[in-house]
Design goal:
The chain is elongated. It contains 14 helices and no strands. The longest helix has 44 residues, at 235-278. The protein has helices at residues 3-7, 9-14, 19-28, 33-69, 72-87, 124-131, 136-143, 147-151, 155-176, 188-224, 235-278, 285-289, 295-312, 315-342. By secondary structure, it is an all-alpha fold.
Length: 343
């Protein structure tokens, strides 16, 4: 919109422009302005983006090393394999030599059936946590402490960031070779020429680290005996991290259940001790003086038996209990009437 004014120097001299309009006119006169701004933006953001990529590479490398160096994880995986073979004994899936990392996520989904002896469900993961060696959860958490950060990262994202930095440096090189730069007062080449050479060396060093990271992930998959897929290279880290977190939670659940069971047993023992110290209950004299008052609990008990027989469909027993109840009530009435008549 302002280009006609910039092209006509007479308009620029005669028209009184405000600071904002003057700035826009000066910027419009700069050749290849958008390309210049893109190159300077790359320089301003280069160091932070490079540091972020290096931090992600370092986190993934540490995660690979902790998985390869863990001593508790292989013991737990062997225990999971033994439990799985015991469950699948006598089937084609029994006597397996190993399993994939995807099976770790199914441990918490496999649950027991509910019965009178065990009304609460328990998962296969909780069973593994119960039979695992003591302190396994604590040791596993310490050995895999570097896994949590890497479980949320993407190796493909790191590679894409590296490619983005390389493309921006290539674009800067093309701009620096353009003949439109180098005019009087143009410091574009002087400002970015030497910086591009130093940045290119840093990108090459980052590329070597990224290639080493991808190689480490590939070797980790081979160590686990799983197929390596470049687009899902970090999926193995995520699965193991989820298993470690779920295993720790299962151990805490078992400890809480054992604590509550101990509390219930102590409360039951204390109640039995109090009942033993109190001794057998004695019938009150007031109850013996008023025999008619004892007919109400008996009636309520008989009515309860009748209701239970009715719910169970035992109609013959219900009729029998009803007849006995009527006989007892009639007997109580006759006894009460005779007692009042005697007075």
């Amino acid at each position: 919109m302002l280009s006609p004014f910039g092209e006509d120097p007479r308009l620029k001299e005669t028209v009184r422009w405000g600071p904002a309009e003057s700035f826009l006119l000066d910027m419009a006169a700069v050749p290849r302005l958008s390309q210049r701004l893109a190159c300077f933006l790359s320089k301003l953001t280069f160091e932070q983006r490079k540091k972020d990529a290096e931090a992600q590479v370092e986190a993934i490398n540490k995660a690979v090393q902790c998985l390869r160096g863990s001593k508790t994880l292989p013991l737990l995986l062997a225990l999971v394999l033994q439990v799985g073979n015991a469950l699948n004994a006598g089937t084609p899936r029994g006597a397996a030599a190993g399993f994939t990392s995807e099976a770790l996520g199914k441990l918490a989904e496999t649950k027991s059936t509910v019965s009178d002896a065990r009304p609460a469900q328990t998962s296969l993961l909780h069973y593994v946590a119960r039979v695992a060696p003591a302190e396994s959860s604590k040791q596993l958490r310490l050995e895999l402490r570097d896994l949590e950060e890497a479980a949320t990262l993407s190796s493909a994202g790191v590679a894409e960031e590296l490619d983005g930095l390389c493309k921006e440096l290539d674009a800067l090189g093309s701009e620096l070779s353009s003949p439109e730069y180098g005019g009087k007062g143009d410091g574009f080449v002087a400002a970015l020429g030497s910086w591009r050479g130093a940045a290119a060396k840093k990108v090459e060093a980052l590329r070597a680290r990224v290639e080493g990271m991808l190689s480490g992930l590939q070797q980790l998959h081979a160590y686990w005996g799983e197929a390596y897929v470049a687009s899902e290279a970090e999926a193995l880290l995520s699965r193991v991290h989820s298993f470690a977190a779920s295993f720790g939670k299962a151990c805490r659940d078992n400890e809480r259940e054992d604590h509550m069971r101990k509390k219930r047993a102590e409360a039951k023992a204390a109640a039995a001790k109090r009942a033993q110290a109190k001794g057998p209950s004695r019938p009150s004299q007031a109850g013996a003086a008023k025999p008619a008052a004892r007919a109400q609990p008996a009636a309520r008990s008989a009515m309860g038996n009748i209701q239970m027989s009715l719910k169970r469909g035992e109609f013959e027993d219900m009729k029998k209990l009803q007849s006995e109840l009527q006989t007892k009530i009639q007997s109580r009435r006759t006894y009460t009437a005779g007692a009042h008549g005697g007075r």
